Amino acid sequence: MTIDQHKNAEISPWWKSARVLVPAAVGAGLLLFVGGWALARATADSDAPATVTSATAAPSPSPTPSGTQVAEPPAVAPTCAAEVDVTSEWSGGFQANVIVSAFGDVEGWTVTMSVGDAVIDGAWNTTLKSGASGNVTASNVDYNGTIPDGGTATLGFTASGEPDFQDVACTAVAPEAD
Prior knowledge:
It contains two helices and eight strands. The protein is α+β, with helices and mostly antiparallel strands. It has two domains: 14-48; 79-173, Immunoglobulin-like. Strands 3, 4, 5, 6, 7 and 8 form a six-stranded antiparallel sheet that branches. Strands 1-2 form a two-stranded antiparallel sheet. A hairpin with a 5-residue loop joins strand 1 (61-63) and strand 2 (69-71). The longest helix has 28 residues, at 18-45.
């Protein structure tokens, strides 16, 4: 090639040369093939079931105006949380409130907890009984069982002894289906 021909020749970028493109394409194809084979082997060798099950019933399809069916999402069971707040203490006793928070519409609730060696003297807004000690259960009464999503209900009690709360848990009752 003469100098004039060389000056007029179009120079392509280095990455467009066949020496670079062919090995890169082969490498990418090989990577995709090996990756797919490894994924297939991992799926075939796993002990996991092929289907996913749910504790809730499968949604029933609803007809749409176009004639296609759309599955409605399953209803989510409501839950609740309980937090104990000691509002007052004195020599030999204390007063506490338990705030029950609803996550989903709740039609009833039960709080379980350990109060240690304390003995319940009296309670309000709950079925918690005087004289209870150790592991206790406090449920709603007829006027405070329904809590809307994001709402709260409060129960309270006085007790003899030291406040020592362990294993505080809340169980929610879902509204009945229509």
